[in-house]
């Protein structure tokens, strides 16, 4: 099996070609690998073992065997393990950041300051929720007990690789579940580091298991597996629906965090000089590859030219370049398929007659290699256009004009998605009223600080279920009512 590993790689090639099952590294049932491509250079930087249904069987058996012991482990002991995981993520921040930059092109300082510390936050939150959670309440003589749902299959995407992993693994193991993780085959390096970290954190064998591979092989086998009690997937709507279909015969619980096309409604009284630049930066954060990115800026028609000028100035000031460079704000798009999709959507915007304010198709000048994309702003976008309806998952912002408040809200709700939303206004009463009319799982008023305790998830086709905080933790619990519990 060829590898391109060298001493400077963050991943040991030996580990990359194994899975972490039952507390140790072990080779796959069949010898096959998947290449990992650095999107900044388009070079293969690692070969990772490609799993199959047999590997899933082994991992599920280990998770099943570990379940009774872990579920019975006192919360305080589980919390100590989470503390250790949290501390080690922060301790190994640089190693994770380098892996993220290599596998999906995150700008190194973005990886250091956002991708890794926010991933650690999910672990802290899960620990905090666990330590204050009441697993049993008694009312009217009936006890309501919350128990771990069982063995969980966790399927994650490539856009925020470590963050998506901790958002699932931390609450699952905090709740007393055991897990099998399948990270995206496009970004498996940070997941391998995470498995090493889990080992070093003293997590008992079988509680956490990692199998790499494709969605069609490993992911589908997990979704259909009779001994997996719950599947949580973050990814495309296509994969989310396939997982639900494959899971249906075994009636397992399925939670889905899928796509988004989040609106950012600027009300007329907002301070536009303060509202537009952060809106553009949020839309382009992580090169626009965030499911909740506010990619539709909905603005009063008579302020369109002002918004365009502010948006263009912001977009043109963004440094796009080598993700290893300290000053880079946006690296490349994470992979070739996504790069091609973003290019096709920019072309679609032009063909549909949207006004190109800045950016446009083609690679960033000066970069012949790497999936570098020009931060692109379209204006005079009609809500029915493809660029206003479909998730682009790249640095492309659509500015859509409205004439009345009702129209602004109708546009905000005019997609199949309902993940995030933003409202900018000075009149907070009005902002709250608008928030209550938007069908989305999270609404942000005037760019507040991130609240990792706030439940995150989608209305409509953005998914089912919630992550983060108490609600995210409770997704991994079953409910048992013991009636007559209080009798004498
Ligand atoms: P994807 O849905 O193809 O992959 C996500 C995960 O699901 C991966 O681990 C993949 O291997 C797995 N998977 C794929 N098919 C599966 C199947 N049939 N059964 C089980 N698991 C399966 O998404 P992607 O390639 O990572 O990204 C493609 C699109 O998904 C993006 O363009 C974007 O629209 C969307 N996306 C959304 C989010 C989000 O957080 N909401 C994250 C990443 C991608």
Q: Which homologous superfamily in CATH is the superfamily of the largest domain? A: Aldehyde Dehydrogenase, Chain A, domain 1
The major pleated sheet works out as: 7 strands, mixed
| Beta-strand share of residues | 15-25%
| Helix-and-strand structural type | alpha/beta
Provide the list of bound ligands, each named once. nicotinamide-adenine-dinucleotide
Give the overall shape: globular
Summarize it.
By secondary structure, this protein is α/β, with parallel strands linked by helices.
Q: What does this molecule look like?
A:
The protein is an alpha/beta fold and 488 residues long. The chain has 2 domains: 13-258 and 463-481, Aldehyde Dehydrogenase, Chain A, domain 1 (3-Layer(aba) Sandwich), CATH 3.40.605; 263-451, Aldehyde Dehydrogenase, Chain A, domain 2 (3-Layer(aba) Sandwich), CATH 3.40.309. It is 40% helix and 20% strand. The chain has 16 helices and 22 strands. The strands form 6 sheets. Strands 14-15-16-13-12-18-19 form a 7-stranded mixed beta sheet, sandwiched between helices. β7, α6 (161-174) and β8 (178-182) form a beta-alpha-beta unit. α8 packs parallel to α9 (237-247) and α10 packs across α11. The termini are far apart. Residues 155-159, 182, 184-185, 214-216, 219-220, 223, 233-236, 239, 242-243, 257-259, 291, 338, 391, 393 line the site of nicotinamide-adenine-dinucleotide.
